[in-house]
Amino acid sequence: MKKKILPFMLCILFVSICTEVSAQEEININSVILCTDINYPDALVAATVANKIGAPVLLTDKNSIPDETMNNIENFNVETVYIIGGPAVVSERVENELRDMGYEVIRIWGMTRYGTSARVAEYFWADGSDKAVLVWDKVGNPEGGNDELVVTAKDLAQSNDIPLLITSTGKLSSVVSDALSNLRVKEIFLVGNFNENLLSELDGMGIAVSEEFRGNSSRIRKKITERIQNKAMAEGNRTRLVVVAVGNWRDAVGAPFHPGRSITRLIKNESEIPNLIEEINSNSYEDIKVVGKPELADRICDSLSSADIDAECITGNASKIAARIAEREIKRIQKLRERFMNRMNRIIERLREIADDINQSCSEYFELANSTIVRLEDNISDIQEYKETIRKLYQDRRECVKAIKKGNYSNARNLAQKIKSGTELVRWKLRNLTPGEIQQMIDSEIQNKSEFRNSIKEEVKAITSEIKEIVKEFKTTDAELCLEQM
């Protein structure tokens, strides 16, 4: 039952409803964001991106694209599909299917939720960001994570149009630390109870804590809600509310994408409905939506109606609901897209500044993929498939160099990301042959810089020791051979 609820939550969790779009009206949205319900951090990070670039978030199954999702992609005249998440949640089959249909596909992912959040931030905030939101969460099984806090942090990041980064509570992971430096972040919002070690790391990087939200999840949610509402009122707007019915908290894997300033309220059972009604009556919410598990969502809607509170209840098949909501919200999304395009000159200028880094990335990741295949060739059964992948990566590298020479920095950045993702996909598929390397990739994302450096030193020390033993054995054997010859 939970698996059926999960996709439902995700597709709803990124969209909002405001404006009907005529079926005859021409829609040009340019890009969509695609992810699944399997890993909730991917979904929440995607929501912050959607608000920044003006793109709907659509739902896919791991190995196939639902008809409703595909219809939206076609009807929106999409050119680029961004996949957020690795092959464990969105398969290579889905990626290839979209490419075969002529779409430009750009996958952005990390080995962990920390890595994914960092890489998404660096890609979509290429021009940098003075501020960011940092929330803590655990790596591993989604059901063992800190879903509720990340949902709240997503609302805060989206309302400020800034990146959402995820790390552990006790230390700043290496990949997130690099992202903060690359984004040139000066101030940060902390969501959750971080310890002093992490605060010291931020201070050492010259990053000031703009505001810290501590306490239990309910207290943090209340403080962030007040902040978002105050910001909206200062701009002469009201805050939109999305109520998510989650029969079991483990089923809540994301939060709806409501463009602009919005609040997400999670309801786990009927006993929480009276408090919800009280909250609505004491706040000036507008455009209230109730989404999620059908049985509970219907009860919430009935209770709100009895309290003379207008709300729209949206339940049913996940993919169909996502498609319906995206269609109705498309005009608002188009406005966000126009706003984003107005900033494009600044983004291009930043890409021009880092053109050498982009060029280097294209070359280094290609060489990494190529050397991996050469090294493991004798152990790979379907070697021709991998050689074809290397050929395609080589073509992308050549195109990357050409794009930089022509001053097409945006295209070069996209090619660099494709090469990077393609290389990591190759290594991920061959993970059984290189378990140590995969673990090192994971460690580079979950450990802080000093821990990772120490682990590398220990590994180098162990390898050096092995080499010395081999040399020692070789010398002994060589000496014995000489004595025999004498």
Q: What is the number of domains?
A: 3
What quaternary form is this?
Answer: single chain
- Main sheet characteristics: 4 strands, parallel
Quote the distance from N terminus to C terminus.
80 Å
Structure, explained:
The protein has 486 residues and is α/β, with parallel strands linked by helices. Helices cover 57% and strands 14% of the residues. It folds into three domains: 2-235 and 318-342, no CATH class; 347-432; 448-485. It contains 18 helices and twelve strands. The strands form three sheets. It has a four-stranded parallel sheet. The protein has a four-stranded parallel sheet with strand order 6-5-7-8, with helices on both faces. β11 (285-292), α11 (294-306) and β12 form a beta-alpha-beta unit. α2 runs parallel beside α6 (147-160) and α5 (113-124) runs parallel beside α7 (174-183). The chain starts with a helix and ends with a helix. Residues 1-24 have low confidence and may be disordered.
